[in-house]
Amino acid sequence: MTYSRLRVERRGPVGWLVFDRPEAANAMDALMFDELERAWAELDADADVRVIVNSGSGKAFQTGVDVAQVARDPAALREHSRRTRDAELRFTAWQCDVRKPVIAAVNGTCAGGGLHFVADADIVIAASTATFLDPHVSLGQVVAYEGIALVRKSPMEPVVRMALVGRAERVTAARACELGVVSQVVDPPAALADEAQELAEKIARNSPAAMAATKRALWGALEHGLTDACRVGAAELVSMWGHPDQEEGPLAFAENRDARWAASGEERDG
Amino acid sequence: MADYEHLIVERHGPVGWLINNRPDALNAMNALMRDEFADAWLELDRDPAVRVIVHTGEGRAFQTGVDVSEIASDGVGMERYRQSVEDWDLHFTAWHQHVWKPVITAVNGICCGGGFHWIADADIVIAASDAQFFDPHVSIGQVVAIEAVGLIRKVPVEAVMRMALVGRYERMSAERAHELGMISQIVDPPELLRDAAQELAEKIARNSPTAMAATKRALWGALEHGLTDACRVGAAELVSMWGHPDQAEGPLAFAEKREPRWQPLEPHDA
After folding, report:
1. What are the tens digits of pLDDT across the range A199-226?
2. Is residue A72 part of a domain?
């Protein structure tokens, strides 16, 4: 499949999804929306891809919707508006129900709607020069989805501060790491892609089926009260019982070799 | 404009100030102060000239919760509050009063026990470098519930639980509160706290009042629902702004390199 707003690549077991519109700070136009939905599906369905890294080319990671461009395409605007209103957005891994681990590798400015990709990733690492800001309210826009998910994943106060201060302040990569929004700051920034690949390769050594069930269980913690989340999580736990990976894992460990996991992608419904 | 015995209510430019003013009692909340809070929040929320509200205290304490000496000495005790708590009919924080303007708590010294209500219920919290946080409830035979329930949704749980159970025998520093994301800024020297709060508030006052109100509702909604449902509720807030004049004015002012002329908030529901 070909893309003009993204680069979609494979390096070993790692699929890369890279925003590739550097002349517009990687802002999402109508075409990028379409391509994102397609690219997540492609990488999720590819059995050779165990882990997905999401990054950006150029100085910015992602700066949100390119409002002017989308407005020039009435059909695209209508569809994006409908999906926004009906909570049917389909451009992040979470929105597209991606089952594989997703690492966001924030290479530079992450602004406004770019925070969707931080909020909806499983793991976030950042270049030491990366910055985070949310200028929505400075432009008369409301912050919802991305702020809501971030509030559930990190201390709330800094998220609300970012949302209400708007363009007047930026959060540094170092502060994002202290807050637990980011788990690793890469310095020098040029080493970000290598670090992301290395982390992804570590993750790729784990059981794909166990990781998919784990993802569902942990994201489920954000959907329910504690006791209910444990009930839902228990179903995910039990779903692995009898799976070949549960035999293979301990065996490979005892034999001091890499595990040969069942292929991922096969349980995808539909 | 109401007269207050235990609070000071002031305006500085677009910023409304609510100042706890019982310094001889470490700003402990007696029955009168509790009633005055209800009025003061509504007064500032209804004043169209006020864009942002800062809450701080006079003297060496920010807030120390219910006035224990009043409780212990007048024979009525906590019973005076039974009905309002059982009926969930509280009115002393901005959140209780449905204030949808941005609220900054500026912690000027000791914040303990019930003082956490105004940490948990603020949008943004900053603190003087000598501020201290602790929760002595269980050390005097009282239960911690509402303020910690709020806080536990906003910051890492362990830190809240530890404060609740260690009681009066340990204090948290402003520095630790910052690490945890309970506060976003430490002001040093402490004397500069009010200047820093005013400066921050003025930055926020430059953003669209209507977009900020909808953003607040969307983000606080993240604590009410599971992630998916919270996104649905948030989407309604997002869409509520579509067609509002601020959405055209924001980008226009940006393009023309001038301050936006925002619409005032819709009047408070009568």
Report:
1. 999 999 999 999 999 999 999 999 999 9
2. yes
Instruction: Tell me if chain A has a CB within 8 Å of the CB of B166.
Output: no
For residue A249, being part of any structural domain is answered with yes
Q: Where are the beta strands (DSSP E) in chain B?
A: 7-12, 15-20, 52-57, 61-63, 103-107, 110-112, 124-128, 132-134, 172-173, 185-187
CA–CA separation, B66 vs A46, rounded Å?
60
Q: For chain A, how many helices (H) and strands (E)?
A: 11, 10
**Residue A107 structure tokens:** 């290479």
Collect all residues of chain A within an 8 Å Cβ-Cβ radius of residue B222: 147-149, 151-152, 156
CB B132 within 8 A of CB B109: yes
B254 vs A139, A169, A223: nearest CB = A139
- Is the domain of A178 the same as that of A230? no
Average pLDDT over residues A115-127: 98
Task: Report the chain B residue with the minimal C-alpha distance to residue A162.
Answer: B124
Give the CA distances from residue B99 to residues B65, B151, B197, B250, in Å, rounded to whole numbers and listed in that order: 21, 18, 18, 24
pTM over 0.90: yes
State the pLDDT confidence band at B30, using cuts at 50, 70 and 90. Answer: very high
A-B contacts at Cβ under 8 angstroms = 163
Q: Which of residues 69-108 of B touch A (CB under 8 A)?
A: 102
CA distance A122 to B99: 34
Domain of residue A220, residue span: 208-254
Please check whether residues A231 and A173 belong to one and the same domain: no
Q: Do A164 and B183 touch (CB under 8 A)?
A: no
Asked if residues A62 and A113 have their Cβ atoms less than 8 Å apart, the reply is yes
- Whether A190 and A239 share a structural domain: no
Domain check: are A156 and A41 in the same one?
yes
| Closest CA in chain A for residue B235 | A85
List all residues of chain B from 236 to 265 with a beta carbon under 8 Å from chain A: 237-242, 244, 246-251, 254, 260, 262
Residue A91: CATH number of its domain:
3.90.226.10
Q: What is the ipTM of this complex?
A: 0.92
